[in-house]
Each structure stands twice: as structure tokens, then as C-alpha cells.
Amino acid sequence: VVDIWEACVQNELNNEPDYIEAMNQVIQEYSWGRDNLQDALREFSVWRTVTGDRDNGAYFHDGAQWPSGAGLVMDTTLDGASLILPATIEPNKAPYDYGFSYVRLENPQAITGAMAMQFNGDPAVDWAVTLIQTRDNFQTIIERELPLSSGNGIMVINPGMLQQADDLTVAIVNLGTDQFDPDTGQDGLRRDYSITLLDAQPDTSLQM
């Protein structure tokens, strides 16, 4: 935190660099150039879900003391027992730039066969979308990042992943744009997305 504060030292009259630029700089320095702010936000979107009774000791060192799911209010919660495919989900509150949104599927074991998840996000910004499977009473966490192109992507969720899951959570991050500048006094914009769940054939290239 101190390093980020120091990296925000103003070097021009227009108050640059700002804290977004400073965080990106410090993350790259600490990771020896392997990661940037976008990578950190995607990772943080997953860590926020692994707390409280979902903590398995592999994430926050005091995660078990936090509220379950870091007190997250899921934007959308679905029940696999009553889910009819195809189903399209749109957020109740679309995420601001650098904001998060979550969709949870409970009782995924009730879904027979494979299912595809199609994501369509506002192409004006970058997105990070991660499917999080919890297993073994939340002791095992498996992440799958959705490859995106211009805000769009699709992945197949095989029957094994559905049948072995306690639940599935989709972590969505609005990664903003290069034009976002906190010095303007604006908090960015809400960016819409949609997720469509579809019947699918199993993907034999996946292990589950």
C-alpha cells in the first residue's frame, strides 16, 4: 500500500500518475513483469468468493474469519433444479469500470448432460470471466477462465463438472478502458453483459 501511495507522487500539474496507473506499476514491479492490474483484479474476483465457510486455507490467511463469500451479494442466483435451458441472464446492477459482478448456480447436479455458457459483454471495455467450481464441501476450488474476443466467449461445462460441484460461481470483472481517469471525478460507467446457458455436447478435450 505504501508503494502504491508513493507511486502516486504527482510529477505534473495534471496530477499524474493516478492511483490506477500506480497500482498497475507496483503490481508489475512485485511480479517481475508477469502480472498487471487486470491480472490482479481477475485473481481478486476469485479470492473474494473463498471466505467464511468456503475457506479452504489456500487463499486469504484469515479468510475463515470473514463472512461467507466475503459478504458478496450475488447479482443473480439460479437453481439447477428449476433451470430450463436455454436461459439468458442479465445483471440487476451492471458493474462499473473496475467493478465486479457474480452469478451463482446452486444444485448444478440437477442438470443432466453438458451445458454451454456464452458470455457477451460491452465491447467498449475489457472483461475477465472466471468459472469457479467448489467441490468436497468447499475444500476444493477449480477455476476456468473464459477466453474472450471483443467481449464475447463461450465454454462447455461437462457433466462431470456439474455432477461433482457443490455449486458454480461465475466471477465477472469489468476491466475498464485506457480512457478511464479517476482525476476527472467520474466513477466510470456501468457496462452491460449477458450470459446465456445452453444445452451442449460434452467437450472431450476437457478432463471433466
Question: Could you explain the architecture of this structure?
Answer:
This protein has 208 residues and is α+β, with helices and mostly antiparallel strands. The protein has helices at 2-7, 19-30, 37-47, 159-163, and strands spanning 76-79, 87-89, 100-106, 114-121, 127-135, 140-145, 152-157, 167-174, 193-200.
Question: How is this fold's topology laid out?
Answer:
Layout: H1 2-7, H2 19-30, H3 37-47, E1 76-79, E2 87-89, E3 100-106, E4 114-121, E5 127-135, E6 140-145, E7 152-157, H4 159-163, E8 167-174, E9 193-200
Parallel strand pairs: 1-3
Antiparallel strand pairs: 2-9, 3-8, 4-7, 4-9, 5-6, 5-8
Profile the largest sheet.
Answer: 5 strands, mixed
User: What is the terminal-to-terminal distance?
Assistant: 40 Å
- Strand content is 25-35%
Class computed from helices, strands and strand pairing: alpha+beta
**Shape verdict:** globular
Strand order of the largest sheet: 1-3-8-5-6
Helix content: 10-25%
Instruction: Give the averaged pLDDT, no decimals.
Output: 89
In DSSP terms, counting alpha (H) and pi (I) runs of 4 or more, how many helices?
4
Order of helices and strands: HHHEEEEEEEHEE
User: Care to count the β-strands?
Assistant: 9
Low-confidence stretches: none
Based on CA atoms alone, the radius of gyration comes out at 18 Å
Summarize the structure.
This protein has 208 residues and is an alpha+beta fold. It has four helices and nine strands. It is 16% helix and 28% strand.
What labels describe this entry?
208 residues, alpha+beta, 5-stranded mixed beta sheet, 4-stranded antiparallel beta sheet, 4 helices, globular
